[in-house]
Structure formats: C-alpha cells, structure tokens
Amino acid sequence: MNETKIGFIGGGNMARSLIGGLVADGVAPQRLWVAEPDAGRRAELAAQFGIHITGGNSDLVQAVDAVVLAVKPQQMKDVCGEIAATVQARRPLLISIAAGIRLATLQQWLGGEPALVRTMPNTPALVQCGATALYATPQVNNTQREVAEGIMRAVGLTLWLADEDQMDAVTALSGSGPAYFFLVMEAMQQAGVQLGLTAESARLLTLQTAFGAAKMALESREEAATLRRQVTSPGGTTERAIGILQQGELEALFARALSGARDRSRELATLLGNS
Ligand SMILES: NC(=O)c1ccc[n+]([C@@H]2O[C@H](COP(=O)([O-])OP(=O)(O)OC[C@H]3O[C@@H](n4cnc5c(N)ncnc54)[C@H](OP(=O)(O)O)[C@@H]3O)[C@@H](O)[C@H]2O)c1
Question: Would you give the end-to-end CA distance of the chain in angstroms?
C-alpha cells in the first residue's frame, strides 16, 4: 500500500471524500491521480489536495497501480469501453464503487480477466463515517486486497463478503440504511413537536440521541437487544413506548422493507447489466 499509485476515474463527491480521507491518513498526494472531464472540478481537486490530474481516463490507467471507478453507474459502460485496451495491457487493480453493477457485467465491458474488487459504500462516507462491503474476483491477490481495503477504510468501516450475491443484502441494509435512520429521526422530531417541544429542541434532542445510541452500541460489547433491555425498566416510560412500537410490528415492517430493497437491488443490477 505504501508505494501504490492510486487513480480515480470520476472526480465527484465520492472520489473527493476518498481522496480527502487518504490524504488525512498520510498518503502522499504525489501517489494520487484523478481523471475528470470537467476542467473546473479538476483544477479544484488539484488546488485542494495537490494531486495529479488528467482529462484522459486511459492516461490515468497508464500511470497508476490501482484504479477506483468512481463514476455514476450509468456512465460506467462507456468508461470501461474507453479504458479496456489499456487495462488489458497493464492489468492494474480495478475497484468499482458503483452501486448495482455486478462483477460479471464489469468483466464483460472490460474484456479479459481483470483483477476486480466490487465495493458498496454508503453516503456517510462523505463525512468519513461510511460502511463499505467489498468482494474480490479470484484474480485479486492479497496485496491488492489490502490496497482496496486501505482505500475504502479512509472513509469508514470495511468488511469483506464471502459471496457477491450478498451485495444486494448490503445494499438493502447499509446502502439504503442511512435513509431509514433519517426517516426515524423525522418521525421522532415530529412526535416531539406534537408533545409540545419547539422544532429546534426536538431536532437537537433527536440527533444527539441517535448519535449517542450509535456510539454506545459501537463502543459496547453487548448486543443492541441487551442495551435496549438495560434502558427499559419494568413499568417505565421506555417499556410503554417499545410495547407500542412492537404492537405495530416494527420488526416485521423492517424485514419487509429490507427484502423489498434487496429485490429492487437485484432488478436494478439486471437492468444495468443489460444496458
Ligand atoms: N455518493 C454516495 O453517497 C455514494 C454511495 C454509494 C455508492 N456511490 C457510488 O459512487 C459512484 C460515484 O458517486 P458520486 O456521488 O461521487 O457521483 P458524482 O458526484 O456524479 O461523481 C461522478 C463524477 O464522474 C464524472 N464523469 C462522468 N463521466 C465521466 C467519464 N466518462 N470519465 C471520467 N469521469 C466522468 C462526473 O462528471 P459530470 O458531473 O460532468 O458527469 C462526476 O464528476 C457512483 O457509481 C455511486 O453509485 C456513491
């Protein structure tokens, strides 16, 4: 990882976060490249981080050891077509962060048998608190796995999957998951206002409670269910509220919501693969 040259195709939000995270982790800007069609965005990235910039995707593939494919899923087919010949000649490590594009699809667009890692990050990566699942093709060696993991760790937690099919479940859980928590926050804020709090008080108390609960759960060795029981005294206020949520079948609702998201992820991956 120490000497690996890393390039990003697409200099948008995710690339900027990853580059920011890598530079903050002590990666020398001279080891980082970005290829981005928008000249203004290129100049901004160069000024902010002091990294190499280029307008040419194939030039970038020529220059680096690991390429992060950081364009939108709909842009990926064109990008793969453009770099395919250079990838086959140089055989760099390729890391896709695009939601919903299967490795078989990328392999088909790139040709040959490239060393490919598919990842599924989530939006909190933009504030270096992401959760990213990774899956690698057999062509990826251990050093390359460490490189891919090191890049994604710059924006949060990483974990490897045993099976690519699990990416659809990851998409349903952590990929779409931030929105579920935002919805719960909205609902709690509204309920707080209905109980007579000001909107600002309800907002601040909700957000700090969400942050505090997540921090406690992350720092504790106990399961979430145990932590919940520990703050639920018999006959108390929490017990009354949890009882009402469970009567409304909250767990079953989450199970249905996540399997709906998982099914949609499969459908979208098939659509993208056939595009
Ligand atoms: N943002 C998230 O929270 C998040 C979470 C999980 C996964 N992802 C994945 O991360 C990827 C990037 O997302 P993002 O939010 O960073 O998108 P973004 O901000 O739109 O960044 C994509 C960048 O790629 C550029 N681009 C377009 N066509 C290109 C080409 N042919 N060659 C090189 N660069 C090209 C775009 O330029 P133009 O704007 O001019 O088109 C844009 O600057 C997506 O595939 C997404 O699925 C993002």
Answer: 35
Please state whether 26 falls in left (phi above 0), alpha (psi between -120 and 50) or beta: left
Nearest CA to ligand 1 atom 25: 10
Q: Check: CB of residue 52 under 8 Å from CB of residue 36.
A: no
- In terms of phi and psi (left: phi > 0; alpha: psi -120 to 50; beta: otherwise), the region of 258 is alpha
Strands (E), the chain: 6-9, 32-35, 52-54, 66-69, 93-96, 115-120, 130-136, 156-160
* Residue 24 zone, left/alpha/beta (φ > 0; ψ -120 to 50; rest): alpha
Is the CB of residue 41 below 6 angstroms from any atom belonging to ligand 1? Answer: yes
DSSP 171: I
Instruction: Indicate whether residue 37 lines ligand 1 (CB < 6 A).
Output: yes
State which ligand 1 atom lies nearest to the alpha carbon of 82.
31
pLDDT digits (tens, 9 = 90+) for 154-173: 999 999 999 999 999 999 99
For ligand 1, pick from 71, 152, 167, 170 the residue to mutate: most ligand atoms within 8 Å of CB. Answer: 71
- Give me the residues paired with residue 32 across strands: 6
* pTM value surpassing 0.85: yes
DSSP for 42-54?
HHHHHHHH--EEE
Report which protein residue has its CA nearest ligand 1's atom 2. Answer: 123
Q: Is 9 in the pocket of ligand 1 (CB under 6 A)?
A: yes
**For residue range 79-118, what is the model confidence (pLDDT) as tens digits?**
999 999 999 999 999 999 999 999 999 999 999 899 999 9
Is the pLDDT confidence value at 48 over 90?
yes
Compute, in angstroms, the gap from residue 257 CA to the centroid of ligand 1: 27
- Which pLDDT does position 261 carry in this prediction? 97
